[in-house]
């Protein structure tokens, strides 16, 4: 294994000044996502974000999910409500998310309250998914133990046959969450670990921006 204590990367692609982002962090995040998609060096799934939740005992867990919507309401993603993250978000409706775009030497951190998305919006998104993805929402009891891969394959085949020639409706246990941001931090890597960090905090209905030390 590579010697971890000596593994270093010098970040020198850019800088971040207040005028780069403007006053609205949602618009700034939208631009950064667009730039990640357009980057000459391919960024694998720019909409992938690490999502952190906590259980009722305060124990954290984190996993990668895909951002599926972004507007002034906040950030939207979809999952099983019965999965570990779904149960944790329902019991303690707060989350943190992190985007990391290595090719651009950038990351964005988001923290906020979480709400369930209304059923009509979840229905519309579910209907837009590929057929196999919709079948998987029925076949997988997400986060639950399973005896073998063969059992999962059998369940997938069962629902494939059950819905043959029919519309696949959204399971009631599956749908969307909305992260309503209370803080959004933009990070740009700089040389000598003197990184740029601009933090937006929501105070009442306004965003307040501060620069943080690296």
Give the overall pLDDT as a whole number: 96
Query: Which outline best applies?
Result: globular
Instruction: Figure out the total of helices.
Output: 6
* Distance N to C terminus: 29 Å
What does this structure look like?
It is a single chain. Strands 1, 2, 3, 4, 5, 6, 7, 8 and 9 form a 9-stranded antiparallel β-sheet that branches. With 214 residues, the protein is an alpha+beta fold. Helix 5 packs across helix 6. The chain has 6 helices and 9 strands.
Descriptors:
alpha+beta; Pnp Oxidase, Chain A; 9 strands; 34% strand
Tell me the layout of helices and strands:
Layout lengths: L17 H4 L3 H14 L9 E7 L5 E7 L2 E3 L2 E7 L3 H8 L2 E8 L4 E11 L2 H10 L2 H9 L9 H14 L11 E15 L7 E8 L2 E7 L2
Antiparallel strand pairs: 1-2, 1-5, 3-4, 4-7, 5-6, 6-7, 7-8, 8-9
Helix pairs in contact: 5-6
Summarize this entry quickly.
This protein is α+β, with helices and mostly antiparallel strands and 214 residues long.
């Amino acid at each position: 294994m590579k010697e971890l204590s000596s593994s270093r990367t010098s970040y020198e692609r850019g800088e971040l000044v207040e005028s780069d982002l403007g006053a609205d962090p949602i618009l700034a995040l939208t631009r950064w996502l667009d730039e990640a998609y357009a980057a000459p060096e391919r960024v694998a799934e720019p909409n992938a974000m690490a999502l952190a939740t906590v259980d009722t005992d305060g124990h954290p867990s984190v996993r990668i999910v895909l951002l599926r919507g972004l507007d002034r309401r906040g950030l939207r993603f979809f999952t099983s409500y019965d999965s570990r993250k779904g149960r944790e978000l329902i019991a303690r409706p707060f989350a943190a998310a992190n985007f990391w775009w290595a090719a651009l030497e950038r990351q964005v951190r988001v923290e906020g309250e979480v709400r369930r998305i209304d059923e009509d919006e979840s229905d519309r998104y579910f209907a837009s998914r590929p057929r196999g993805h919709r079948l998987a929402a029925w076949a997988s009891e997400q986060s639950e133990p399973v005896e073998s891969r063969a059992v999962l394959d059998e369940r997938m085949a069962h629902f494939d046959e059950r819905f043959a020639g029919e519309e696949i409706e959204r399971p009631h246990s599956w749908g969307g969450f909305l992260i309503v941001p209370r803080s959004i931090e933009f990070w740009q890597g700089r040389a000598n670990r003197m990184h740029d960090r601009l933090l937006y905090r929501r105070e009442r209905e306004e965003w307040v921006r501060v620069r943080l030390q690296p």
